[in-house]
Design goal:
By secondary structure, the protein is α/β, with parallel strands linked by helices. Helices cover 36% and strands 32% of the residues. It has helices at residues 11-24, 37-47, 63-68, 85-91, 105-118, 124-139, 185-192, 233-245; strands spanning 2-7, 28-34, 51-55, 76-81, 97-100, 142-147, 150-155, 159-165, 168-173, 178-181, 197-201, 204-207, 211-215, 220-223, 228-230. The strands form 4 sheets. The protein has a 5-stranded parallel beta sheet, sandwiched between helices.
Length: 246
Amino acid sequence: MLKAIIIDDEPASLRGLEKMITTFTEGVTVVATAASATEGLRAIKTNHPDVVFLDIEMPQKDGFELLKSLDTINFEVVFTTAHDQYAIRAFHTSALDYLLKPIDPEELRNAIQKVKNKKGHYDGAGVKAYIDNISGQREKQQIGLASSNGTSFVHLDNIIYLRGDGAYTYFFLKTGQKITVSKNLKEYERLLGDKGFYRIHKSYMVNLQEMKKYSKGSAKLIMSNGDVVDVSKRRKDGFITELAEL
């Protein structure tokens, strides 16, 4: 009997896949489900699964970042995704398996059969290599920032942090440039929340790779350019949890 874990931040997708496994497959038991990468890590360490059905696009920390935080991967991974273009392109050139949402029952059965065939011979090193490859592609992603001077195309890893002010958002870049965009910060939280950025305050969202120092006492965060930004009381606990997973 295969032990399976499902990790997906969308409740409907999580419940739907669990029901499909129960209805359309044999020899598989869902031993745990998780709605975030943090919960998923705990479930993996507690249950020692044979297979993890892992959603790629999740807020704060995505499926790839979850796997990168593990020292070893001694289980099979079946990625689930609705629209990650970089992942789909790379999947076609790798031996790794994935299910495209909405998931087809026959494709689910095929994926589980592959897991059964490889049970005890999991290629954790291969998964790690794949993650490094796809992460490199995703780091090259750009975002178009429309301002009064035209549209600037900025690599995500060049953004240090964002500051929201009503209907406007200010982007602070490694070049020292500040770009003003007439969209609110909530819009960019939706766009960047699963790409290594974390909203720490109603007015601030930071690139987690550009943090220099965090002071718990004052709830202040120093960024790589020396700017100091506030971490709100409401978001402090979530932010500390995020720091522990980096």
